[in-house]
Each structure stands twice: as structure tokens, then as C-alpha cells.
Model the fold of this input.
Amino acid sequence: MQVSKKEGKTLNKALEQWSERGLISAEDEQKLRESYQVSTFDWQRAAQYSFWLAIFSTLIAFFSALADEWLMELVEKLFNATEATKCISMVVIATLLYTWGIRRKNITPEKVFSNEAIFFLGVVATAMSIYFFGGALETESDDFSMLLLLGVIIYGALGLWFPSKLVWIFCLVSLASWFGARTGYVSGWGAYYLGMNYPVRFVLLGLVLIFAGNFVFTQWQSRSGFLRPTRAVGLLYLFIALWLMSIFGNYGDVDSWERARQIELFHWSLLFGLAAIGAIWHGIKFDDGMTRGFGITFIFINLYTRFFEYFWDGTHKAIFFAILGISFWYLGSRAEQIWHLNMLGLNKKPNQD
Done:
């Protein structure tokens, strides 16, 4: 079995500690060590990055080609068709890409990254077809949110059908775009919707994705792999919205926010901090690295945002960054100390307790 360097270090350390504590014999340790090989190069990560770079380079090549005058004239001639014709063309291209991706996934399911790259190109073609569809219908700006909703439905259905986590993530991104556009158009841009500004609305959206995703995908066993990406997107929406709330509160315009006193925003900062602590508690209690990581990341974002708010203007910049450096040094030393204590606990023999 091939494992990465990071996985190899973890396995070697675990086997060494188990052998020292007498949990396995020396013969068992040797057999287990011989059952895997440490790869000198992480080909999986290289494949992932290579396919993303290939897609990125293809898009750059496409837009670079459009920069040439004669190519632009050629493209204009090729695309000098009705919006309906362009829409149908993109639908055909997207269908071919999705069909190709499904076929490759059935034949070579181990080629995850290349299959997902094909689905990504299908997603781009689908987005273009929806755009041209709106042009064919001469969609008004007020109805643009309906095109975003159409994207949500298409990406959601395709992502769950294939199945493809990448397409499903685009469904969740389109959902947020539709949600923001729809509530904004209904109530007026930048204003309130049911007494909530944009950050408050997206806090609710994040919570809905987290809890609804957990309920649906724990029940739907064949699609249980969609639980983590749904939770990740929901947590991202939740914490970014909480961070913005800690800065702007629930004000719908800049003038009202500027007139507000700093103390009037404190309870939003407190809510942000409590949510981060709750995520850390959940991650530690249930050994969930995702919630723990989000909690730790955003609790530091909260602390340093407050530091900038309260002390940036009144503190000499040299002193400010000195305090910042000292605080990071202190946190690092404390983390190192905790790590050493954990290592001592792991190395301690059972009869030494």
C-alpha cells in the first residue's frame, strides 16, 4: 500500500508508540511496517493541482485569444447568432461534457481529479447556457434571480445524480447568489428584509445548510459523502456573516452604522466569539476537525478584528505590531507546550499511571 510522507510519519510514530507500550509485539510491528510503502512524491496532490492548472490555463488561453483582433472578429462571426442558438449550443456542449464525465467515472472511478475537471467544464458550459437563455427571454434585471434559481435546480439535480461533489458545491454557491439577489431585489439593495440586513440573512442561510445537510445526508446513505462539503459551505457562510455582523451589526445603511457607538456593536462581537467557541467545543467533543478548524480560525479573526477596531488609531504602529508578534509567539509557545504534554501522555506506559 502506497502512503504519503505525512501519512507514513503518522503510521511510523503510531507503530513505535504501540510497540513501546507493549500493545503489539516486535514481529507485528515489523509486519505492519512492511505492509505499506512511503511514496517519495505526493502524486495525488500533484494530479489535483495539475488538473486545476490545466483548467485555469485553458480559460486564460481562451480570453487571450479573444484579445487578438482577428480572432475577436472570427468569434463575433461564429457567435453572430441568436441568443436561443447560443443557448442550445451550450446545452449540447454541457450535455456532451457531462456524458463524457459520467462515462469516465464509471470506467475509471479512481481518476477522481480528471473526472471532476470534466464536470467543471460542464458547469461552465451550463452557466453560459443559462446566461444565453436569459438573453433569449430578454430577462429584466428584476427577474435575474430566477436564472440563478434555475442554476441552483440544475446543479443540484446533476450533482446528486452523477454524483459529483464539485457540481453540488456550485449548487450551494448558486443558492447563496440567488438568496442574496432575491431578498435584495424584493426589499431593495442594501436595505432590510424582514428586519435583517445581509449578514444576518446569511447567518440563517448557513445554519439552514448545516442542519438540513446533516439531516438529509445522514438519512440518505448513498449520498452521505455530500455531508462534509455541505457542512463546510454552511460553516463558511455562517462565520463570514458573523464576522461582518461583528463589524457592521444589523444596520442597513452606512450612515446609520457610522452614527452607532462602538459599544452598540459589542454584543455582535460576543455572539461571534461564542459561536467560534461552540465550534471548537463541538470539534473537540466529537473529534471533528472541520468544526474545530473553523472555530479556531474565526476566534482569532474575531480577536484581531477587535484589536484593530479598539487600538489601531490610538496605538503607535511599532507598538501595535510588537504586541501582535508577542501574542503570536505566546500562542505558539503554549501550543508547543500542549503538544509536548500530549506526547508525554502517549509515551507513558500503562503501568506508570
